[in-house]
Amino acid sequence: MIFLDHLINGLSLGSIYAIIALGYTMVYGIAKMLNFAHGDVIMIGAYIAFCGLQYWGIPPVLAILLAMVFCTLLGVTIEGFAYRPLRQATSLAVLITAIGMSYLLQNIALMIWGANPKSFPTTFINGSNIRIGQLNISSATLITIVANIVIMVTLTLFTSKAKLGKAMRCVSEDRGAAELMGINVNRTISLTFAIGSALAAVAGVLLCSSYPILQPTTGSMPGIKAFTAAVFGGIGSIPGAMLGGILLGVIEIFGKAYISTELGDAIVFAVLIIVLLVKPAGLLGKPMREKV
Amino acid sequence: MTKAKRKRLIYNLVTYALVIAAYIILQNMIGAKTISRSLKGLLVPICAWIIMAVSLNLVIGFSGELSLGHAGFMSIGAYTGAIISGWLLAAFDMQDPTLRLVLAIAGGGIVAGIFGVLIGIPVLRLRGDYLAIVTLAFGEIIRNLVNVLYVGTADGQLHFAFLNKKLPADVTMLVDGAKGAVKIKPISTFTVGFVLVMITLIVVLNLVNSRAGRAIQATRDNRIAAESMGVSVTKYKMMAFVTAAVLAGMAGALYGLNSSTVVPTQFTFNQSINVLVFVVLGGLGNVLGSVISATFLTVLPEVLREFADYRMLVYAVVLILVMIFTNNPLIRSVFGRAVAPVKGLFRGKKNSVSGGEA
Fold this sequence. Notes:
The complex is a heterodimer. Chain A contains 11 helices and 4 strands; from the N terminus they run H-H-H-H-E-E-E-H-H-H-H-E-H-H-H. In chain A, 72% of the residues lie in helices and 3% in strands.
């Protein structure tokens, strides 16, 4: 029974990682950059939802929507101001800018909301627990897992059927050719950032519903782990992000439960290093060949 | 002597001369007791951060790889240094602090170098963003591991324990898990720090101006071209990475032995970013720039308390703006045209506009 409990916890944490990993994987696939600030967009989203619930007393659904809208705008703004001027620059320059952006968001949050951790109101999501035999599943867990599946199916449909989604895939495959075919590359990249950031807001609310401590650094560690998940599953692949996220969540919870609580993070990162060495393209990724 | 060679020589001599001059002035100030207490306390950390910045610049500026785990190597050095120093004192009753310090620094460098090789072999097969994230992961793993490390000394022997405190009862604790390295006798001195800075500068400046250094820069500028000219990319990237790791380990030992405790939380990811800011602000591939910015940015928060509160915010903005200003072709050309007349003034050239591209 304890094993099943850990498994459910792992699935729940993994679902959160999966949603965050989607943001990374989409941006990486299309803009070919590691958006280091993604984890901090999650944190901002959680803070907005927190303010909505705690201070303004708006209903939970509205609070989440507000957080999504805000994060979407934030993501597009970040892309436009910081990343777009560096479209032609080396990946080193873009990465350093992204790290700077990550710290900028953290420090802005620190100035607005202070360093003291806020406890995220979880009452709205913690309805009744569901019991299956001896197994006790909290509704937060259930909502997280369901939300993950819904998001995944929607996104897969969007990228395979919708015109804009197809445009995104084109840009990720060959930016130059996509431009020649009349696809507005800048707008497509903005759209990707918008979707990724909106998902980040959802992930932020879900994360804080399960682990209700909110502070300016809340997003950074899950962000890095979610990137690990994206690499694990194969960067650029949407089902890969889902698989990688869930596997990583399960590995982390089992590692903490059966090996050592203190070494939980170390285990996750060791997984990353092993994956990159054995199968650098990830579980579901396609190996990319470099053309000279 | 070609013009480029002469330029490099002058640059190197200026770098050495500035550091030596700063040392002489500060030593005189210490002798005359005109130096403030807080600045005096900062001298050894400044040396450590200069070494960190210069060594990270070797990896980022010259070999073009973003390493985000530099604080991890520093932490290895700090712990190794604390263990060696404590052990030498307890087991061999070695009273001479300078000798202990030198041995501790050497040990810190060697152990960090070994880790550098172990990590470098797998990691340097990866490229760009992956390398950044793996070095970051490595830094976090190190922080996690030292958190559950227990080291004690008894009867001249070192006892190690991992995860649980299963050490013999009569040991003197040297490293106590999350409490970090405890009861360190602070033995770092400014003179040793200065010597270490000079060694770092000599190693790095000579390396980057040698055949190997040119190979390192070639792998940065175009990996495929360098490979096809017969440059072994892995070998040269490894050379830069391990050299930087050794230097960071030595800086860590120097830094760790400057205070009475070393805790794992001193060497977080934030610390790696701090050093990154030194390097970026000083200029990628500019050693003298790293020295100056590391000094300046270590002193500034201590002098300006108001700045200390907004330090990270300012750093973040600095990272973004420096990158955009130096990498956006449009902004760069506008900026270049604006500063060209000034540059021309210094150079005493008639055709000043073309100077913007240099």
